[in-house]
Please model this.
Amino acid sequence: MPGISLGGLSTEFTMLVLAIILGFVHMLAATQAITGERGLWWNMGPRDNAPPLRSALAGRLDRAFANFRETFPFFAASVLALGVLGRHNAQTVWGSELYLAGRVLYLPLYAAGVPVVRTIVWAIATIGIVLLLAALLNG
Model:
Protein backbone atom coordinates (compact mmCIF):
# COMPACT_ATOMS: atom_id res chain seq x y z
CA MET A 1 0.00 0.00 0.00
CA PRO A 2 1.52 3.35 -0.98
CA GLY A 3 2.38 5.80 1.71
CA ILE A 4 5.30 7.41 3.44
CA SER A 5 7.32 5.11 5.69
CA LEU A 6 10.37 5.61 7.87
CA GLY A 7 12.55 2.84 9.20
CA GLY A 8 10.17 0.05 8.26
CA LEU A 9 7.26 1.60 10.18
CA SER A 10 3.78 1.58 8.71
CA THR A 11 2.59 4.85 7.22
CA GLU A 12 0.34 5.41 10.22
CA PHE A 13 3.17 4.97 12.71
CA THR A 14 5.46 7.11 10.55
CA MET A 15 2.86 9.89 10.66
CA LEU A 16 2.65 9.44 14.44
CA VAL A 17 6.43 9.82 14.84
CA LEU A 18 6.41 12.88 12.57
CA ALA A 19 3.48 14.35 14.52
CA ILE A 20 5.46 13.93 17.75
CA ILE A 21 8.33 15.84 16.13
CA LEU A 22 5.84 18.48 14.99
CA GLY A 23 4.65 18.76 18.59
CA PHE A 24 8.21 19.59 19.64
CA VAL A 25 8.39 22.20 16.86
CA HIS A 26 5.16 23.76 18.20
CA MET A 27 6.49 23.73 21.75
CA LEU A 28 9.86 25.23 20.84
CA ALA A 29 8.34 27.94 18.63
CA ALA A 30 5.84 28.98 21.29
CA THR A 31 8.40 28.79 24.11
CA GLN A 32 10.95 30.85 22.21
CA ALA A 33 8.42 33.55 21.33
CA ILE A 34 6.99 33.73 24.85
CA THR A 35 10.42 33.67 26.52
CA GLY A 36 11.58 36.35 24.11
CA GLU A 37 8.74 38.52 25.31
CA ARG A 38 8.67 37.72 29.03
CA GLY A 39 12.35 36.96 29.55
CA LEU A 40 14.47 34.00 30.52
CA TRP A 41 14.12 34.64 34.24
CA TRP A 42 10.33 34.49 33.96
CA ASN A 43 10.61 31.22 32.03
CA MET A 44 12.94 29.68 34.63
CA GLY A 45 10.78 30.86 37.52
CA PRO A 46 7.41 29.60 38.80
CA ARG A 47 5.55 31.60 36.11
CA ASP A 48 3.01 32.88 38.62
CA ASN A 49 0.91 35.81 37.50
CA ALA A 50 1.95 35.60 33.87
CA PRO A 51 1.34 38.91 32.15
CA PRO A 52 -0.73 38.83 28.96
CA LEU A 53 1.25 38.35 25.78
CA ARG A 54 1.77 41.62 23.91
CA SER A 55 3.06 40.19 20.65
CA ALA A 56 0.51 38.86 18.19
CA LEU A 57 3.01 36.23 17.04
CA ALA A 58 3.70 34.92 20.56
CA GLY A 59 -0.03 34.67 21.22
CA ARG A 60 -0.69 32.89 17.93
CA LEU A 61 2.14 30.38 18.46
CA ASP A 62 0.89 29.71 21.99
CA ARG A 63 -2.69 29.17 20.74
CA ALA A 64 -1.51 26.99 17.84
CA PHE A 65 0.41 24.80 20.30
CA ALA A 66 -2.66 24.58 22.55
CA ASN A 67 -4.73 23.50 19.56
CA PHE A 68 -2.15 20.86 18.63
CA ARG A 69 -2.29 19.51 22.20
CA GLU A 70 -6.09 19.27 21.88
CA THR A 71 -6.09 17.18 18.70
CA PHE A 72 -2.92 15.10 19.03
CA PRO A 73 -4.21 12.71 21.74
CA PHE A 74 -7.14 11.69 19.52
CA PHE A 75 -4.78 11.06 16.61
CA ALA A 76 -2.22 9.16 18.69
CA ALA A 77 -4.84 7.00 20.40
CA SER A 78 -6.41 6.16 17.05
CA VAL A 79 -3.10 5.17 15.46
CA LEU A 80 -2.09 3.09 18.47
CA ALA A 81 -5.47 1.32 18.57
CA LEU A 82 -5.25 0.58 14.85
CA GLY A 83 -1.77 -0.83 15.39
CA VAL A 84 -2.90 -3.07 18.23
CA LEU A 85 -5.79 -4.34 16.12
CA GLY A 86 -3.56 -4.81 13.07
CA ARG A 87 -5.72 -2.63 10.87
CA HIS A 88 -3.89 -1.01 7.99
CA ASN A 89 -5.62 -0.02 4.78
CA ALA A 90 -5.96 2.86 2.35
CA GLN A 91 -8.37 4.66 4.69
CA THR A 92 -5.94 4.55 7.62
CA VAL A 93 -3.07 5.70 5.39
CA TRP A 94 -5.14 8.62 4.10
CA GLY A 95 -6.37 9.49 7.58
CA SER A 96 -2.90 9.61 9.10
CA GLU A 97 -1.44 11.55 6.18
CA LEU A 98 -4.30 14.07 6.17
CA TYR A 99 -3.85 14.67 9.89
CA LEU A 100 -0.13 15.30 9.63
CA ALA A 101 -0.35 17.41 6.46
CA GLY A 102 -3.08 19.54 7.99
CA ARG A 103 -1.17 20.04 11.21
CA VAL A 104 2.06 20.92 9.37
CA LEU A 105 0.22 23.59 7.36
CA TYR A 106 -1.73 24.83 10.37
CA LEU A 107 1.26 26.17 12.29
CA PRO A 108 2.57 28.69 9.72
CA LEU A 109 -0.98 29.70 8.75
CA TYR A 110 -1.85 30.44 12.37
CA ALA A 111 1.48 32.17 12.99
CA ALA A 112 0.86 34.40 9.96
CA GLY A 113 -2.69 35.19 11.10
CA VAL A 114 -4.32 33.76 7.99
CA PRO A 115 -8.08 33.45 8.58
CA VAL A 116 -10.48 31.00 6.91
CA VAL A 117 -7.76 28.94 5.18
CA ARG A 118 -6.37 28.08 8.63
CA THR A 119 -9.78 26.77 9.65
CA ILE A 120 -10.12 24.75 6.44
CA VAL A 121 -6.70 23.21 7.08
CA TRP A 122 -7.76 22.41 10.67
CA ALA A 123 -10.86 20.69 9.24
CA ILE A 124 -8.70 18.61 6.88
CA ALA A 125 -6.59 17.41 9.81
CA THR A 126 -9.76 16.62 11.75
CA ILE A 127 -11.16 14.65 8.81
CA GLY A 128 -7.98 12.59 9.05
CA ILE A 129 -8.83 11.67 12.64
CA VAL A 130 -12.42 10.88 11.63
CA LEU A 131 -11.14 8.49 8.94
CA LEU A 132 -9.01 6.72 11.54
CA LEU A 133 -11.92 6.45 13.97
CA ALA A 134 -14.19 5.13 11.21
CA ALA A 135 -11.60 2.45 10.42
CA LEU A 136 -11.59 1.48 14.09
CA LEU A 137 -15.36 1.27 14.28
CA ASN A 138 -15.93 -0.44 10.94
CA GLY A 139 -13.27 -3.11 11.41
